[in-house]
Give the backbone structure.
Amino acid sequence: MRRPDPAAGLTPVPTALSAVNSALTSIPTAALLLWDEHDGPHRAAACPPDEILQRALATLAADAADLLTGPDAEYLTPCDSAPCNRYLLRHGRRHWCSTRCGDRVRAARAYARRAQSKSR
Ligand SMILES: [Zn+2]
């Protein structure tokens, strides 16, 4: 069964898709098998200091790809506060990506009510 597409009707910007794929493939993200006297066998990601930024970008790209293709994708929805272009994971009655967007919508509603009552 095909899951709902959170970006239905949208096409990805080719450079954005390329940037995500570049970040995904630039750094191996699999944790290495390490072994020492204190911890015994364990897994940890090796992270040389000169790769910190690349690893952070690879992790963000992997999280984004997992979100778009994973079970939470059906909850991904655009923020209801125009002109915001962010997305959120909708749970319950949440409609906005942030308190700021919710406040903007509530303020616009209050302004519209005041303007309407003055025009009567
Ligand atoms: Zn928003």
About this structure: The chain has three helices and four strands. The CA atoms of residues 2 and 64 lie 19 Å apart. Strands lie at 32-36, 40-44, 76-78, 87-89.
